[in-house]
Amino acid sequence: MSDWRPSARSLAKIYECAHAILPDEACGFIHLCGQVILMPNTAPFPRRYFEMATSDILTAYEDADRSGCGMAAVWHSHPNGSLHWSERDRRFWVPNLVNILVANTDVGWQAIYH
């Protein structure tokens, strides 16, 4: 896992995106320059988990390369407030990126990293 961490501004943007998608799980990427990308959640049951289409992932990586920033992190939300990695989350951790989980807990939006 990288030592890279998102800025407070990037985290605030993730929280904003995740809140806008409630009650579904939100997902996306962060470029190394801090740009937060909200991706479509293509899961059949988006309130229970997230999936991203391969073509959307490829486009996101191509856009990051074109911008000269590169990709830093992948993120998703747990709308139920759970700030714990599920077994499914652990199976789909992306190597070489920081994996970020955000949740709207009883004390507000929070994030954890892997």
Notable features of this structure?
alpha+beta, single chain, five-stranded mixed β-sheet, 114 residues, Cytidine Deaminase, domain 2, globular, 3 helices
How would you summarize the topology of this molecule?
Blueprint: H1 8-21, E1 27-31, E2 36-39, H2 54-67, E3 71-78, H3 87-91, E4 98-105, E5 108-113
Parallel strand pairs: 3-4
Antiparallel strand pairs: 1-2, 1-3, 4-5
Can you walk me through this structure?
By secondary structure, the protein is of the alpha+beta class. It has a single domain (8-113), classed as Cytidine Deaminase, domain 2 (3-Layer(aba) Sandwich), CATH 3.40.140. The protein has helices spanning 8-21, 54-67, 87-91, and strands spanning 27-31, 36-39, 71-78, 98-105, 108-113. A five-stranded mixed sheet has the order 2-1-3-4-5. The longest helix is centred in the first third of the chain and has 14 residues, at 8-21. The chain is globular.
Count of individual beta strands: 5
Portion of residues in helices?
A: 25-40%
Order of helices and strands: HEEHEHEE
Biggest sheet overview: 5 strands, mixed
**Coarse morphology:** globular
What is the top-level CATH class?
Alpha Beta
Poorly predicted regions are none
Q: How far apart lie the N and C ends?
A: 6 Å
